[in-house]
Design goal:
This protein is mainly α. It is about 75% helix and about 0% strand. It folds into two domains: about 45 residues, Orthogonal Bundle (Arc Repressor Mutant, subunit A), CATH 1.10.10; about 50 residues, Arc Repressor Mutant, subunit A (Orthogonal Bundle).
C-alpha cells in the first residue's frame, strides 16, 4: 500500500491507471483495490483524484503558478475538467480556492 501511494505521489501529473499502480506496487489489480478500500475507504481512482485536488489546493494557495499550469501539474490537462473537479472536491472553483488562501 505504501509503495502504491508513493508511486501515485511521484506520478500525479501522469495518467494513473490502476493496473500500472498495481504493477508498481507489485500486487494484483484486485488486491490493490481491496487494500485501498480497507486502508482509505476509497477506491484507487477516488484516492488519486483526492490527492490531485489536495495538491492543486496547495499550489493554488501557495504559488503564483497559473491555473492551467496547476491543472497540468496535477494531471488534469483539460481546464474544464479541472474546474469541475475543483468544484466537486474542494467546494469552489480554482479562482475562489486561490482567493481563500489569501485570507
Amino acid at each position: 500500500m505504501t509503495s502504491a501511494q508513493a508511486y501515485i505521489e511521484e506520478h500525479l501529473a501522469e495518467p494513473l491507471p490502476v493496473p500500472v499502480i498495481a504493477r508498481a506496487a507489485r500486487v494484483s489489480h484486485t488486491h490493490l483495490t481491496r487494500l485501498f478500500r480497507a486502508d482509505t475507504g476509497l477506491t484507487v481512482i477516488a484516492y488519486v483524484r483526492r490527492r490531485r485536488l489536495e495538491r492543486a489546493r496547495h499550489l493554488l494557495q501557495s504559488s503564483t503558478l497559473s491555473i492551467p499550469s496547476i491543472a497540468a501539474t496535477v494531471g488534469i490537462a483539460d481546464l474544464q475538467a479541472f474546474n469541475k473537479a475543483c468544484h466537486r472536491e474542494l467546494g469552489a472553483g480554482p479562482h475562489a480556492v486561490r482567493a481563500a488562501g489569501d485570507l
